Structure prediction request, 264 residues.
Amino acid sequence: MHIVVCIKQVPDTADVKIDPKTHTLIREGVASIINPFDVYAIEEGLRIKERAGGKVTVITMGPPQADAALREAISMGADNAILVSDRAFAGSDTWATSYTLAMAVRKLGDYRVILCGKQASDGDTAQVGPGIAAHLDLPQITYVRKIEEIDEKHVVAERLMETGFEALESPLPCLLTVVKEINEPRLPSLRGKMAARKAQIISWKAADLGCDPRSIGLDGSPTKVVRIFTPPARTGGVIFKGEPEEMAAQLVGKLKDAVLGAAS
Ligand SMILES: Cc1cc2nc3c(=O)[nH]c(=O)nc-3n(C[C@H](O)[C@H](O)[C@H](O)COP(=O)(O)OP(=O)(O)OC[C@H]3O[C@@H](n4cnc5c(N)ncnc54)[C@H](O)[C@@H]3O)c2cc1C
Prediction:
């Protein structure tokens, strides 16, 4: 079974800074890591391979330095790695990113499962996985916390919900996005690290994928960032203290005062 895992290289910080002019992330001077949710996706890909046989291919779309993320995935046990990189992709929004990744997956041809993280820790939209499925016209199961059954033809997975979980069955090929409850990612082995150092990373440009130039990069991105800002910290407010009953009574008192104040 050919398992494809999409991984994104993200800044190793929760304090993401935005360029006020271009409205894009400032990456200079910030160390990079594999998006944490994608590490769970890699681990699940490796576990599917161990259960059902096959190979794991990791794909990232990003600048040349995203090569490091792919090598880390190889050190965990991925078989092949593809860097989708071209200046023409600069400025891509989630629509253009998912289109480009879908074109790369389509070029692979024989995939059965595509795994993504739930969301990226920098962009945070959770749109790219579902977007890839839409571009490839595939079924998708998001927020997967457990794969119950999987073979060449179908998958049964548990989808995490606020109040529990849903068990869903889908034919393959199918795209799954995973949450961190799904597994405990392995650490790279020494052998894996040596393999990663020597591994040949396949590099694909826009022309290799047959991308429509109108669907990639800034020109292919229907999202227009109007303004981007950090909301000012909240001031004021009231903190209630005491037992729950006392705090409830204080809240009711405040609400009564506010209502009576507004009415007078
Ligand atoms: C108009 C516009 C211009 C932009 N320009 C830039 C820019 O120039 N440079 C820039 O870095 N960002 C840019 N962005 C942000 C960019 O759109 C997002 O970083 C990107 O589309 C991924 O979205 P996300 O981070 O919300 O990922 P999510 O949708 O939250 O990610 C979900 C999952 O999808 C997969 N995934 C996401 N991105 C990738 C990837 N690149 N490769 C492989 N797998 C992936 C991973 O499995 C991930 O866990 C721009 C956004 C807009 C709106």
